[in-house]
């Protein structure tokens, strides 16, 4: 082989090599997906919250290509039941993006039939392994339950119903300083929601037969830090 033939051969090989990359299929979201176990999910949430607290959020999974991969499927790796409060946005607090969290927000992060159904959907159909109930400091819904005797007669029946769901969490700590009562009631209210979820037959099965976990947590509005309580 003379030098001219060798140069031509290398040029052709180079073009073929480049073409092989240009035509290689892009891996789909599903091909790259692996079930995230509950311990890993807690670690990912903790790491994301640490970035948020440090002011180093990376805002992952927002690009057009990522969202395009999600058009026909989703595999969220954590369910978040938290308050509707505008100061408690889960994706920002945990520095997560599209498709990561299955979020249910309702004032006072209470548990009712529709909330249970939404969580069951994520656990049973989307194979999400971690369910987190997240309360927060200065919760207006819990404060309303603490002050319910002042407002009960003026509130619409639906608000009264919601406050009644929180009331058992307040009853534990009545008679103490008001601010302390609110703080402790917020913690009790998370524990109450965790307990109610663990009593749901379908979720009980998931806890016993699979790696599913239901845990409580608390978001401190001042520091931005979320603490988990896996013993609830
Ligand atoms: Zn709240």
Describe the structure.
With 232 residues, the chain is an alpha/beta fold. The protein contains ten helices and five strands; from the N terminus they run αααβαβαβαααααββ. The chain has a five-stranded mixed β-sheet, with helices on both faces. It is globular, with a radius of gyration of 24 Å. Bound molecules: zinc ion. Zinc ion (ZN) binds next to helix 6. One of its GO terms (molecular function) is zinc ion binding. Its cofactor is Zn(2+). InterPro entries: Carbonic_anhydrase, Carbonic_anhydrase_CS, Carbonic_anhydrase_sf.
How do the strands and helices of this protein lay out in sequence?
Elements: H1 3-23, H2 38-53, H3 64-69, E1 78-82, H4 90-93, E2 101-105, H5 113-125, E3 130-136, H6 140-146, H7 148-151, H8 157-171, H9 178-198, H10 201-209, E4 213-219, E5 226-229
Parallel strand pairs: 1-2, 1-3, 3-4
Antiparallel strand pairs: 4-5
């Amino acid at each position: 082989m003379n030098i001219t033939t060798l140069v031509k051969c290398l040029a052709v090989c180079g073009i073929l090599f480049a073409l092989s990359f240009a035509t290689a299929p892009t891996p789909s979201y599903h091909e790259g997906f692996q079930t995230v176990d509950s311990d890993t999910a807690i670690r990912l949430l903790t790491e994301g919250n640490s970035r948020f607290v440090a002011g180093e959020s990376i805002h992952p999974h927002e690009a057009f290509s990522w969202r395009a991969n999600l058009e026909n499927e989703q595999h969220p790796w954590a369910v978040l039941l938290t308050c509707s409060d505008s100061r408690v946005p889960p994706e920002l607090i945990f520095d997560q993006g599209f498709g990561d969290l299955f979020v249910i927000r309702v004032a006072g992060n209470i548990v009712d039939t529709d909330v249970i159904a939404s969580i069951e959907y994520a656990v049973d159909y989307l194979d999400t392994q971690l369910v987190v109930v997240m309360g927060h400091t200065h919760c207006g819904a819990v404060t309303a339950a603490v002050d319910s005797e002042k407002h009960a007669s003026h509130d619409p029946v639906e608000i009264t119903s919601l406050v009644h769901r929180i009331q058992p969490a307040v009853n534990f700590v009545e008679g103490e300083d008001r601010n302390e009562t609110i703080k402790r009631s917020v913690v009790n209210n998370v524990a109450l929601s965790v307990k109610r979820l663990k009593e749901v037959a379908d979720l009980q099965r998931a806890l016993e037969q699979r790696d599913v976990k239901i845990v409580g947590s608390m978001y401190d509005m001042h520091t931005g830090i979320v603490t988990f309580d896996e013993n609830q």
